[in-house]
Amino acid sequence: MSSAYTNKLMMIDLSHASFEILPVPDALKTNFIGGKGFGAKLLCDMVSPGTDPLSKDNPLIFMTGPLTGTMAPAMRGCVVTKSPLTGIFLDSYFGGSFSPEIKYAGYDGIIIKGQAKKPVFIWINDDHVEIRDARHLWGTNTLEANRLIKTELKDKTIKIATIGQAGEARIPFALICGEYNRQAGRGGAGAVMGSKNLKAIAIKGTKPVLVHDPQRFITACARAFKELEESPDVESFRQAGTAASVEFANETGLLPHKNYQNGTFSKASDLGDKGQSKHLWLGSSACMGCPIRCSKIGAVRTGKYKGIITDIIEYESVALMGANLDISDIRAVAHLVKLCDLYGMDSMSTGNIIGFAMEACEKGLIPSPKGIDLKFGNVAAAEHLIHAIANKKGELGKLLSQGVQKAAQKIAGTAEELAVHTKGLEAPAWGPRGVSGMGLAYMTTDRGGCHQRGFPVSYELSGEWEGHPLDPLSPEDKAQMVVALQNYSAGRDTLVNCDFGSYGIPADTYAELLSAATGQKADTNTLMETGERIWNLVRYFNLAQGLTAQKDILPRRFVEEPLPDGPSKGHRISRDDMDYMRQEYYQLRGWNKKGVPLDKTLNRLGIKYVGPHQ
Ligand code: SF4
Q1: pTM check: above 0.90
Q2: pLDDT for 535-582, tens place per residue?
Q3: Residues 528 and 500 both lie in one domain
Q4: Residue 232 counted as domain residue
Q5: Which of 477, 522, 560, 564 could form a disulfide with 514 if both were Cys (CB 3.0 to 4.6 A apart)?
């Protein structure tokens, strides 16, 4: 029976320079669908409590979804591992063309375990697998490594995922770059790759991806394309990408400014789509086969940074490397983000950490590096710190390269009060003080502070959730919304669909695409139920790795310091509000008061995870 699954996983053991093909059990497909689900189950099966994320025992799992590589719109790939930044579960997503190529080579995913003795890269050409010497590539940036591998293999059509110098140096927020501009950015998957002495994976596939019922699948795809076409939200992404969110976040008081001290920035419009279109953009581009085309290709055409070729500076990067650092010159922000991309370092975490350093220096907690005036608004200081962090250079570079949580712990005095993270993952660019549901989502997200595992902001600001009124500032009625959004997000992440696609495509269309492509029964509840199963499995994994309810909290800034500006001026999410939302959330999840899933919850979801909390 044809199916969009290839039913094969490639397992590569770098310690023994060997590989094997594993079958995909039916139960894995039924219970976990693909993508995040496959990755979570495999990670739980492979990683014992206490495993060092940078040891040979932590696998690096590249997963596709069942619809990746088909004509279903806006499908991507993901990387799953134990994060060196947080010490808990990590899933990080990337678009582009690398993940469809995994399917074309004949695999649903690639699992990498062990550690090579010297730098290597993996070359997969359909059934041919080779582990090649990469000593000559070590020390190159992400784009140079990509170019050199294509030259070496004499084929420009090969797709490549690579790390830069930051991954080699095991910076815990190093990323993996898929082709030229699509990163698995958050949580340090690049450091895990570096710890394996793995510079890159190059892949070429020539096999077709079949679907179970072609006519039904074409009809479902046509429906999905039409839904995207008719969605005003999707049209907004097509016109302006996520850059349009800068002015929205500013008007609503959610934009981080000066290490999240404020929620507005007077020069926000310079950083948004208007500023970017004036100074950078030249045309649209897209991940493979995506009709949304949210990306822009551009170049810095004037000024000191003239000549940089750049993608869209998406909202998170421009907010954290621009507004958060009090920098309004979009060309300078393009330069700073490009530096991070070349080193292979998450520009979100890096912007957050530099903002922390600027504030800590202004408050006298750390000194400025020699010859640098470390203060908000200083582009040269930000640039200096990017180089210092990526190369672990100087006292400050070494300190900050550990991530904001550890850096703050090591600075004497009140530095921890300035560190804006949840569970060690630097916060994204949506300050939650005016939207408490977003705060609850940060508190409970499976990979640490993240806005992509449920994004309640639009519901909170519209004042309505499923027909019921919703007060954005109140802690009431938030848990139910956050649980539902998280379950649906985890369910969709089994398909590895782009979040932006879900602004136009509803759950029943995704279910129909899945059914038509694989032959599996799926309806609107399938993604929700599967998402809930994954969420609980990952919770159990995280508890086994040492997570406790004490870490389901917000950073002090959002709890103790009232927002000084914007429409929610004066508001914060108090400890009482946090406690209220957290207990309601645990109860709705079927967890005990310490945030541990109850046996009846695990049994209902069919989860058999044997960990220290049983
Ligand atoms: S919407 Fe943008 S990020 Fe998402 S798949 Fe399409 S081009 Fe890629």
Answers
A1: yes
A2: 999 999 999 999 999 999 999 999 999 999 999 999 999 999 999 999
A3: yes
A4: no
A5: 522
